[in-house]
Amino acid sequence: MKLLMFAALTGALMMPLAGTATAQAAAYPVKSSQLTANPLYEAGALPTTTCTEESLEPNNLKQARDYLDGIVACLETTWEQHLTKAGVTYRPVKVRHMNRIPKKYCGFDVGKENSQAWYCDRTETLVFQLGKDWLDEPDDLWLFDTAASMYGYHVQKLAGITKAYDKLSYDKKAEMYEQDRRVSLQTECFGAAFLKSVWPLEGRNMSDWNTLVRLLQGDDPDEFRDYGRPASVRYWLKRGFTTGDPGSCNTWAAPSSKVA
């Protein structure tokens, strides 16, 4: 089992995996049909629904938690319909809010960032730790995208993608990191597809969307490559938002250049 985490500090996206990536190209294509031809991709665009954002004031922890709970409720409504249509058994995600996530949460080391979100597929639980970095200026779509993309890990668990990913073999670290990027970039695409399904949000316009696209930075050049370069992150974000269709989020069938 692999724990998937989304933590942000000044807009950086990180996942705590040991080692460093090499420059060698990873093996392609991925051969697991559960990944490349999952029934999830054949159910069409997400159903169009309405999602209302709760009020958000700077540094108001209760409001931010309520906001995230509201977005998760919208996600459940939408994804239950889509997964059911795809023939996937639906189970609601569990949500926990913590002032500080334990260092060994779900058996993995947790960093010291003041704002983090984790998904533990062992318990099917989303955990949010909200701090200064996410609460100082909460009026953009950052928290919305955090909830939507993190829920994408739950979708992967329910659809059998997580299990198939865990079984993938790799010969070199470069191949392992490419597999990790395919996972993470798919969740970002799923999140954007959901945003499209509830767009336009009341009081929002394309300026808010463009701000979100700029906020998502991708891997730091000095870190190991397990999330994706900024161009890759933005490619899959835009792809999901353009189509509103999880079928367009098939990172597993994409060439290595699209998940760099």
Task: Write up this protein.
The protein is an alpha+beta fold. The protein has 8 helices and 5 strands, in the order ββααβββαααααα. The protein has helices at residues 33-36, 61-85, 132-135, 142-158, 161-167, 173-197, 206-215, 230-243, and strands at residues 4-9, 12-14, 94-97, 116-120, 125-129. The chain has a 5-stranded mixed beta sheet, covered by helices on one side. Strand 4 (116-120) and strand 5 form a beta hairpin. Helix 2 packs parallel to helix 4, helix 4 crosses helix 6 (173-197) and helix 6 (173-197) runs parallel beside helix 8 (230-243). The chain is globular, with a radius of gyration of 17 Å. The two termini are 24 Å apart. The model is unreliable at 1-5 and 7-26 (pLDDT under 50).
